[in-house]
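[job 4471] stage=fold_predict status=RUNNING
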Amino acid sequence: MPDLTEKKDAGQIPSPREGAAAAAVAKPEKARSLGSDAWHDLRRRPIFVISALLILLLVVIAIAPGLFTSVDPRAGDLRAHYLGKPDYTNFFQADWFGYDIQGRSIYARVIYGARASVVVGICVTVGVTIVGGLTGMIAGYFGGWVDTIISRLTDVFFGIPLLLGSLVILNAFTSRTVWSVVFALVALGWTQMTRVMRGSVITIKQADFVTAAKALGAGTGRIMFRHILPNAIAPVIVVATIALGGYIALEATLSWLGIGLQDPTISWGIDISSAQKSIRTAPFALFFPAGMLSLTVLAFIMLGDAVRDALDPKLR
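[job 4471] inference complete, writing structure tokens
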């Protein structure tokens, strides 16, 4: 019988330390969930980092505009009518971007205008996601006549142009505020989320884990919200992130048309509308609010593209 010492010397029997190291190497890495895997991928995407930093800056501006300017955005001095001589020596001064037609600081109005746009964009996105997500999940899970009714109702609302329908709804309000604009956009904008959620739920409900949950006696509510919803929400998150920038642009369009937000609310759309009459003599009055609006919409679209690439395995 061969000696074990000879086998160990010959490399046939590993030492305890070598065996532990080999076991550690052979131990498989713990599988990450969809959310953690997407976050792991997003952190390494420059487009996500840039867009997230821009959005974070916009949120801070919307929450605390006083950190960026000490000037009252509604205080006007007609002597500074379209005075376009910015002085960049003092960051907190009134004429950093010049003055508008009423002698109000364009810089201060650009800073304070972020609040209305961000609030409208976020609230509309949350509203259409909740309404569209619930209706789409009910239609996709139950099917049959429930699916037929919700699908036909969705087709009716989907056939109404969002901009035109919002104009009609907002005309019914005597005073148009942020919440009236949010209501009008949510009332007509939930259809896309319904279709996305419905298709995702129809695919997920045929999975084996849903069948196993039904076999174990799980109730309908538990199956829908504990098993189907977490696995079907990814496409909705992608669509909602991209659509958020579109809702901000739509709010500015409604305000530019004179049917959206009204004074004394400060909005980029209102400032763009008032500055378009003097685009040749004072282009800076139009450039700064329009540039801020474009940058905000671009940031949310970039974020949505990054999230879509991270959550879709086919695009990796």
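[job 4471] summary: The chain is about 65% helix and 0% strand.
[job 4471] exit 0
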